[in-house]
Amino acid sequence: MIGDIALRLVALLVVGVATWLVVAGVRAYAAARKRQTLAAAPADDLLRDLPGGVSDAVSGEMSGVRVLAFSSEDCGPCHTLQRPALARLLDQRKGQVSVIEIDAPSSPELTRRYAALTVPTTVILDASGKARAVNYGFAPTTKLLAQVDEALSMQALSA
What we know:
CATH topology of the largest domain: Glutaredoxin
Structural class: alpha+beta
CATH superfamily of the largest domain: Glutaredoxin
Strand order of the largest sheet: 1-3-2-4-5
Shape: elongated
CATH architecture of the largest domain: 3-Layer(aba) Sandwich
Strand content: 15-25%
Number of strands: 5
């Protein structure tokens, strides 16, 4: 009886440790990809070559700070959560930020360049095109506002 309980506790401990290792591995992988994205060279050449052109993919006035919004046609959270959050961002930072919507499956080079591991993914670019923040999964308006404001303040300091 005590042997069965001990065996179950050991099995539970092994499962717990294995789960922790998997979660830690996934987090480390995502952090490494985020570092890669933040170190990526600006991709203005790839943005110009978007299907339909940048002008068809952009919401708001083209400005220094840009948000790349990676999504796909069948991504529910992209359309029901992320798109409204981006619309609120544009409304609150009129003329200071633009959103470039990117269909991830149709733009594999951009998706690789910015390590869009999942959709939605948002990437905040400063005026020089350097990535300043990356969000995997839904990013609420408050988080996007903070990231855009940081990019805008860095832009003001360098001016």
